[in-house]
Amino acid sequence: MEYAPRLDGEPDPGEVVWAWVPYEDDPSRGKDRPVLVIGRDGATLLALTMTSKDHDRDAADEARWGRVWMDVGTGPWDAQRRPSEVRLDRVIRLPRSAVRREGAILDRAVFDAVTRAVADVRRSR
Fold it and tell me: Which residue among 2, 25, 54, 101 is least packed, with the fewest CB closer than 10 Å?
């Protein structure tokens, strides 16, 4: 995991981009959604899905299914400036071709907190 954002038309760690993300229960299907790029594995991007849904309200149910969410605040990746969350327990691997467009750069302090939380979740499993 690294922080290396550059709004240059290419997805970089530390950026929120829009990409086609496969559904967890049916990888042949999916949807276009914002993701936070947290690293690379060769040409493959490592990313976390984002949502504007508030999972604080259903935290117990989400935890029962093993899903862990973290608030990351608001940003230009959401035109309505709704607060967003990232899913920490599912690092998705995306080819560059899955990325539709760059969105925004996430604040460095927030990015660092997210990557620490991802590492903590991975260690606890």
Answer: 25
Q: What is the CATH number of the domain that holds 106?
A: 2.30.30.110
* pLDDT in single tens digits along all 125 residues of the chain: 889 999 888 899 999 999 999 898 898 999 999 999 999 999 999 999 999 988 888 888 888 888 999 999 999 988 899 999 999 999 999 999 899 887 799 999 999 999 999 999 999 88
Nearest one of 103, 121, 90, 97 to 33, comparing CA atoms: 103
Please list, in sequence order, all residues whose beta carbon lies within 8 angstroms of the beta carbon of residue 106, skipping any fewer than 6 positions away: 5, 14, 15, 16, 36, 72, 75, 114
Q: Which residues contact 125 (CB under 8 A, 6 or more apart)?
A: 89
